[in-house]
């Protein structure tokens, strides 16, 4: 066969990166040093490890807004994560960022969520209050640095600095004058930072910022869609919103006889497009204003660079307020989530009192654990549960299990 001088090794064919993108050839490495792969960049390996992890598979059976058995078509944590990843990759492609790093951060960002979503997190945070509380982002870090047990030479996934940094700081710095964090930084993050500094006072990469805003775009859109599917809101209710309402009017003017299901889908896809295009325009403007030329310039910037315009930020805020009032805090959702919190708290207190009721290695080597370490082990065990497993465990251990409907 004739020699082909245009051959590119598998995994390395990509568009030229922008100068302010994260360059995989300049990665700051891993906590445990590993030899390079001949076919994949460090960020590709991170993404692949995330996808093959047990925590990623569990997202399939964890609540986004509606518990999974309320309907087959509602989003779960897994489908939400995939939608976030798709939007984030669109930003990476448009801005010439590293797509693999962007995707890795998007795919891992919700690993630490408990069963029943934020309801389970609220319950565990109350239970863990004497021991530093519980935060799903900090729990994501624990999963990828300690709790996943897949590799012979290390605990966790041994992800690169850039992926860990993006996981922890995708919403902004956690320390220093530009911190966006409310309250004390979660203890698991500070403990890991002492071993492997993540520059908590600096901004994360544009790839991480892309994942963060994609999360906002995804849930602001698909929670409207799921609210319509659940009957908590109706198409005409979208007229209350400047963004979704203007799209509703445009679609009705263009397709006067469109059935409701197609109408809803047309609105949602345009909703995402409007927000994505706004972010790209606003980001390019900020990059120019702040004279961003390198990845280090991004980290040293005094503000988030990949963002909505002020006008779209206000529209997104109004959408979020609408969702809180009409969907998240609706009587039917609140009733289910209150019962879910009770279920999680019941399990926590039972496992703390009788830790050998936990399955597998979780109930082993309990001797010598002080109160705080036992509580953390129980919260690790509980937070990893899927919705269905948490319900089945409650039924095993208690005579009366709340009906989550």
From TrEMBL:
Q: Name one GO molecular function term.
A: dGTPase activity
Ligase as a keyword of this entry, yes or no, is no
Q: Which UniProt keywords apply?
A: Hydrolase
Q: Which one GO biological process term can you cite for this protein?
A: dGTP catabolic process
InterPro entries, A to Z: dGTPase (IPR006261), dGTPase-like (IPR050135), dNTPase_2 (IPR023023), HD/PDEase_dom (IPR003607), HD_domain (IPR006674), PHydrolase_assoc_dom (IPR026875)
Q: Which Gene3D superfamilies match?
A: Hypothetical protein af1432
Pfam families, alphabetized: HD (PF01966), HD_assoc (PF13286)
Show where the HD domain sits: 77-220
Domain of life, per lineage? Bacteria
Protein family according to the UniProt entry? Belongs to the dGTPase family. Type 2 subfamily.
State the protein's name: Deoxyguanosinetriphosphate triphosphohydrolase-like protein
What is the scientific name of the source organism?
A: Aureimonas ureilytica
Q: What is the lineage of its organism?
A: Bacteria, Pseudomonadati, Pseudomonadota, Alphaproteobacteria, Hyphomicrobiales
């Amino acid at each position: 066969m004739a020699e082909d001088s245009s051959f590119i090794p598998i995994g390395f064919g990509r568009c030229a990166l922008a100068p302010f993108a994260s360059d995989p050839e300049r990665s700051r490495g891993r906590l445990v040093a590993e030899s390079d792969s001949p076919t994949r960049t460090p960020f590709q390996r991170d993404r692949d490890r995330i996808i093959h992890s047990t925590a990623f598979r569990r997202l399939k059976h964890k609540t986004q807004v509606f518990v999974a058995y309320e309907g087959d078509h509602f989003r779960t944590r897994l489908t939400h994560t995939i939608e976030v990843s798709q939007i984030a990759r669109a930003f990476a492609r448009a801005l010439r960022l590293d797509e693999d790093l962007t995707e890795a951060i998007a795919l891992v960002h919700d690993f630490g969520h408990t069963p029943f979503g934020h309801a389970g997190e609220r319950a565990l945070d109350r239970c863990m209050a004497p021991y530093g509380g519980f935060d799903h982002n900090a729990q994501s870090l624990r999963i990828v640095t300690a709790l996943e047990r897949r590799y012979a030479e290390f605990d966790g996934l041994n992800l690169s600095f850039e992926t860990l940094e993006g996981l922890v700081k995708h919403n902004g710095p956690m320390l220093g004058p530009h911190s966006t964090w409310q309250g004390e930084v979660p203890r698991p993050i500070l403990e890991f930072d002492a071993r492997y500094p993540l520059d908590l006072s600096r901004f994360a990469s544009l790839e991480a910022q892309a994942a963060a805003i994609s999360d906002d775009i995804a849930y602001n859109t698909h929670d409207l869609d799921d609210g319509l599917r659940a009957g908590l809101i109706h198409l005409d209710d979208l007229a209350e919103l400047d963004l979704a309402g203007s799209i509703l009017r445009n679609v009705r003017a263009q397709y006067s006889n469109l059935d409701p299901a197609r109408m809803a889908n047309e609105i949602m896809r345009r909703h995402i497009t409007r927000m994505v295009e706004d972010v790209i325009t606003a980001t390019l403007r900020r990059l120019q204003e702040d004279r961003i030329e390198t990845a280090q310039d991004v980290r040293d910037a005094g503000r988030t660079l990949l963002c909505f315009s002020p006008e779209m930020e206000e529209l997104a805020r109004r959408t979020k307020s609408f969702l809180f009032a009409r969907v998240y805090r609706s009587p039917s959702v609140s009733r289910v989530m209150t019962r879910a919190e009770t279920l999680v708290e019941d399990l926590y207190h039972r496992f703390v009192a009788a830790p050998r009721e936990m399955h597998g290695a979780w109930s082993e080597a309990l001797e010598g654990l002080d109160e705080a370490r036992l509580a953390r082990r129980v919260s690790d065990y509980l937070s990893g549960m899927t919705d269905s497993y948490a319900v089945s465990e409650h039924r095993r251990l208690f005579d009366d299990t709340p009906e989550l409907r």
